[in-house]
Amino acid sequence: MADMMKKIPVREQDPKVRATNFEEVCYGYNAEEAKAEAERCLNCKNPKCVGGCPVSIDIPGFIAHIKEGDFAAAYETLSLSTSLPAVCGRVCPQESQCEGQCIRGIKGEPVSIGKLERFTADWARENGIRPVKPEKTNGHKVAVIGSGPAGLTCAGELARKGYEVTIFEALHKAGGVLSYGIPQFRLPKDTVVDAEIENVLNLGVKLETDVIAGRSVTVDELFEDGFEAVFIGSGAGLPMFMGIPGENANGVFSANEYLTRVNLMKAYRDDYDTPVIRGKKVVVVGGGNVAMDAARTALRLGAETYIVYRRSEKELPARAEEVEHAKEEGINFRLLTNPVEILQDENGWVAGIRVIRMELGEPDASGRRRPVEVPGSEFEIEADTVIMALGTTPNPMISEATPGLEINRKKCIITEEETGKTSREGVFAGGDAATGSATVILAMGAGKTAAASIDSYIQNKN
Amino acid sequence: MYRILSAEKLSENIYRMVVEAENVARHCLPGQFLIVRTSEHSERIPLTICDYDREKHTVTIVFQPVGYSTMKMAELTAGDAFADVTGPLGKPSDLVNEPPEELKKKSIVFVAGGVGTAPVYPQVKWLHEQGVSCDVIIGAKTKDLVIMEEEFRKVCNLYITTDDGSYGRSGMVTKALEDLVSEGKKYDHCVAIGPMVMMKFVSLLTKKLGIPTVVSMNPVMVDGTGMCGACRVTVGGETKFACVDGPEFDGHLVDFDEAMKRQQMYKTEEGRALLKLKEGDTHHGGCGSCGGEE
User: What is the ipTM of this complex?
Assistant: First the structure.
């Protein structure tokens, strides 16, 4: 009998092996393991986990079906609340959401809800089970801008309700951050991302790539074309830099550029034309999921890799699992350290990075202890590549081209949180475009909320 | 897919294509660019829009094969198609925001070099349509490399100069501009588009001559929408993204040396891909520069 206080361990690729390939790190549960883990669910009358889920999945419900071995029913339950279960099972910060609320977690380890969600979605895909397309549409057209987590969720929800939805994507491929940002070894593209996008399209959703809202088409033109409502889920695409000397040296990249070249443009594969600089010694600046992704990608491209982060380990904003995996793979952490200058060689290429030690002071506005410089503690780290993973801000391209659409100081589209309504009638927004950089699941939650508001907006109008 | 309606060679190494791209053709303005991808496995290539037809939904691009991806592009012919054409990207030229009456008061000179001649065309044509006349200096190494002469003659006062003196004036574009000024021409606005080094020296000259100058930057880019930051350019001490803040900037404020250095960033990587194209699997290094032996 397994220890009920502990999660059923999940099989993973050996750290030494996976550090050299782009195959998925985590193998996930098999049916037997999933059933055993499902047994640990107490099926609480008042399930706290559901409250911790931004898209309110009936967690005890789908887990109960796994217990019974009825995986198809488990998938059906999941599909009522999420369009992207195979994605969420892999990238959600479960420890601070569903699993963070799990009663099992008080005395032991919480139920491995994320791994169970992943198992269910993977099982459904491997067995050819797909969400069912509604028999007929209601004749109302809705435009969705952006095909990332927010847009896909909003489109999926509306299509299920019978709306004729068209998604407009600026890049040549759908998925937003799921395609360009999160690496293959954490979220496989062909098998997982493309399959879940295909599921959304199978609901009758149309996809137009290469359409840059605000440039190739405006929101006003979409209304002229007969769309009754528009959802903006364009993400937060613009990378931030530090503004320190040497930042424009050759070999300094935004994490966005580095990850886009490797994930979307597949620079790691010989059959693609994309170039990428394969550094020998790479420093990644930042402590979020994107920093972990960039560091682990650089490692796989053959580099000795360092993460430089100005706070301590406790404040790392990345998912616990990502930090764990990064350490196992041999990423070196230089915590309480902040860059002050990027050093260049005589040809203008990165030669190193000058950093300063930090210590934690009083808590700041974010509640985390504010890092302060330790005077006179500067030192240098040798490097040939520096990747800045400091967060992103929304792209103003759509707001600039949409009269009457109000944005805040941070260029985020102003929305009513409970509805996703913007200052323009019929225009809704959600995800990073409204909140600034956050998580896949929060964007999905916003897409779902907006879909409900769009539905009532159109129904009330007609 | 985006159909190629015509493809022609303008000179030894410069190609022109007319491509169907409705969204771009309906919305673009002079100064903006687009991004093309030849196939599923190709890079995204940014190119300045060289002409457009709102009714026929076509755009014209002119390019010079310099690396692997542009060489693949040059192999395409009429009837073929691009996997992707997206845009318009970047800000339109400042000129299109000025009322024609104001523009008519100005004396404008365009300085174009090499393949940069083509992106000058839509601006000059647009001015001509507004009833604004201007001077254009086209520079090329030699007579055979002068492109689009006929098109330009219809819409401006054209001066051609060749490095070897085989056609028109003799010398670089900077010499032609300096000569025109000393011959009595007075300019109060200059637009220079061409190789980075040409734009640098035109800007240095016009600074001396006191002529405000706009240049069009063409740095390394990935998405073209502001997402990657690869196209960082230092302008007046500030970092700008050429794709969303430009591509046109004040030539007197651009840090050209940094921009030229950044343009070299992928040269070895590109060289590697180029050798693979030229020599196929037979090339396994030994050339000392491609890294094939690794």
Answer: 0.88
